[in-house]
């Protein structure tokens, strides 16, 4: 079972920052997960929320700032003063960080609340520029975004995110089409997920931070989990 560092090593570093991704790059894990939004000047930036309020010393919507304006805010101090000076990374900067490793990069398009016209093409352009097409997984809760991805780049691995259970995952993801399903931990043990696994679907589970669940998922035959604390889960499964 593969391990993905969720928003980087976010248990110990400020989520979705270069510090959190550098920590992940040092670990023998399969990959990382990150979230992207679009700035006012159409730069793809790595941040989880639509606003910068929770994870910076600023306030407001990502979409209302230019990249230059966003760079003036501190994205590390909210967690600890020792991380002060961390800035918001662009997608390109994070991809560059992993240029010399074998880690897979799961880019989650955060288009479920704000649609961000053209974000799919911009993300795919960055991935192609870094020659990372084969290492990237593009996921989203907004499955229309995944349809757009599959129209532009049918060869790229995409994954449909689900917070809740569907009766027939296999038929549904074939329609998008998406290659994998990423399900929440509370739904991972449901009959329909087991059926999808038996039918050959790639199933990854978010967000798994305790040892007991990690071991149960491994027994179930899940392909990967997303965790904030990859070192802890590595130790559990070793
Ligand atoms: O991609 C899995 C997981 O990250 C989805 O939920 O809210 O952490 O982005 P969230
Ligand atoms: Ca995410």
UniProtKB/TrEMBL annotation:
Superkingdom assignment: Bacteria
CDD domains: GDPD_TtGDE_like
Pfam families attached to this UniProt entry: GDPD
InterPro entries in the record: GP_PDE_dom, PLC-like_Pdiesterase_TIM-brl
Domain annotation GP-PDE: ranges: 1-237
Protein name, per record: Glycerophosphodiester phosphodiesterase
Organism name: Lysinibacillus irui
């Amino acid at each position: 079972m593969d391990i993905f560092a969720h928003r980087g090593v976010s248990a110990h570093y400020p989520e979705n920052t270069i510090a959190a991704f550098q920590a992940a790059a040092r670990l023998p894990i399969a990959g990382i997960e990150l979230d992207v939004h679009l700035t006012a000047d159409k730069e793809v930036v790595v941040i989880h929320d639509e606003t910068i309020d929770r994870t910076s010393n600023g306030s407001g919507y990502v979409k209302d700032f230019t990249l230059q304006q966003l760079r003036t805010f501190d994205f590390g101090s909210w967690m600890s003063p020792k991380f002060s000076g961390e800035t918001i990374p662009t997608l390109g900067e994070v991809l560059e960080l992993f240029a010399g490793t074998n880690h897979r990069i799961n880019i989650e398009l955060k288009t479920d609340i704000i649609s961000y016209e053209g974000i799919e093409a911009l993300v795919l352009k960055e991935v192609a520029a870094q020659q990372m097409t084969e290492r990237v997984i593009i996921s989203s809760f907004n499955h229309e975004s995944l349809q757009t991805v599959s129209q532009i780049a049918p060869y790229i691995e995409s994954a449909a995110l689900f917070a809740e259970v569907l009766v027939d995952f296999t038929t549904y993801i074939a329609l998008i089409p998406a290659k994998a399903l990423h399900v929440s931990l509370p739904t991972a043990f449901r009959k329909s997920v087991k059926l999808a696994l038996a039918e050959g679907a790639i199933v990854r589970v978010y967000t798994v931070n305790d040892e007991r669940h990690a071991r149960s998922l491994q027994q179930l035959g899940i392909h990967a989990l997303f965790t904030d604390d990859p070192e802890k889960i590595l130790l559990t499964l070793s």
